[in-house]
């Protein structure tokens, strides 16, 4: 009986060698050589950190192109365009995001974004300012966003921030500034007559 089991084991091992040359039973000299590293993205998805869930970090929650569940970046751009079309020529609308509200000391309440700001931008971080302007020309509008800059020391305690680069790439702002700069430094405010 033992001889029969050994023969069966030998037969199974030889079948495995034929079907799966990468298995632990049989290793070819090529299998032990290092394969060239192939990279498809300049940044690993594991290294990406944003102040809110995005498709790159939470593909189980968001589809490609979505900024918030069920709402794409294109839809947010159309909402801003709708607002801009209703503004008088040479005017600008300034929207402020909510701020963090502290309970006591360093402990803060759960953050809830201002609904108007969130409806037009999809940006779900505190202390941001959106400027949507309509120029004298027909159709087009400008969208500037002031956001908190990335700061690893602060993010360690308060959580990740999207930062200025994500505001350009993900939220499709025309220009982005850090909130450490004042809004009156934005050149868009000098070119428009009415401020809403």
Would you spell out the secondary-structure blueprint of this structure?
Layout: H1 2-19, E1 66-68, E2 71-72, H2 73-86, E3 91-96, E4 102-104, E5 107-108, H3 115-121, E6 129-134, E7 141-147, H4 152-158, H5 163-169, E8 175-178, H6 187-191, E9 194-195
Parallel strand pairs: 3-9, 7-8
Antiparallel strand pairs: 1-2, 3-6, 4-5, 6-7
Describe the protein in words.
Residues 15-41 have low confidence and may be disordered. The radius of gyration is 27 Å and the shape is globular. The termini are far apart. It has 196 residues and is α/β, with parallel strands linked by helices. Strand 1 (66-68) and strand 2 (71-72) form a beta hairpin. The protein has helices spanning 2-19, 73-86, 115-121, 152-158, 163-169, 187-191, and strands at 66-68, 71-72, 91-96, 102-104, 107-108, 129-134, 141-147, 175-178, 194-195. It has 6 helices and 9 strands, in the order αββαβββαββααβαβ. The strands form 3 sheets. It has a 5-stranded mixed beta sheet with strand order 8-7-6-3-9. It has a two-stranded antiparallel sheet with strand order 1-2. A two-stranded antiparallel sheet has the order 4-5.
The percent of residues in helical segments reads 25-40%
Q: Can you tell me the residue ranges where pLDDT is under 50 for at least 5 consecutive residues?
A: 15-41
DSSP strand content: 15-25%
Number of DSSP helical runs:
6
Question: In sequence order, what are the helices and strands, one letter per element?
Answer: HEEHEEEHEEHHEHE
Measured distance between first and last alpha carbons? 91 Å
């Amino acid at each position: 009986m033992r001889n029969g089991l050994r023969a069966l084991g030998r037969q199974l091992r030889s079948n495995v060698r034929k079907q799966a040359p990468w298995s632990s039973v049989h290793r070819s000299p090529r299998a032990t050589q290092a394969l060239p590293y192939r990279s498809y993205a300049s940044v690993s998805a594991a290294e990406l950190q944003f102040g809110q869930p995005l498709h790159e970090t939470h593909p189980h929650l968001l589809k490609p192109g979505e900024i918030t569940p069920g709402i794409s970046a294109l839809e947010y751009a159309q909402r801003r365009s709708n607002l801009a079309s209703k503004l008088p020529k040479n005017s600008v609308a300034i929207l402020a995001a909510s701020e963090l509200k502290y309970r006591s000391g360093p402990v803060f309440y759960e953050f809830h974004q201002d609904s108007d700001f969130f409806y037009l931008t999809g940006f779900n971080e505190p202390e941001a300012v959106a400027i949507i302007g309509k120029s004298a020309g027909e159709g087009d509008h400008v969208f500037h966003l002031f956001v908190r800059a990335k700061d690893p020391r602060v993010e360690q305690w308060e959580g990740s921030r999207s930062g200025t680069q994500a505001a350009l790439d993900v939220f499709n702002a025309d220009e982005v500034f850090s909130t450490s700069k004042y809004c009156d430094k934005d050149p868009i405010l000098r070119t428009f007559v009415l401020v809403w």
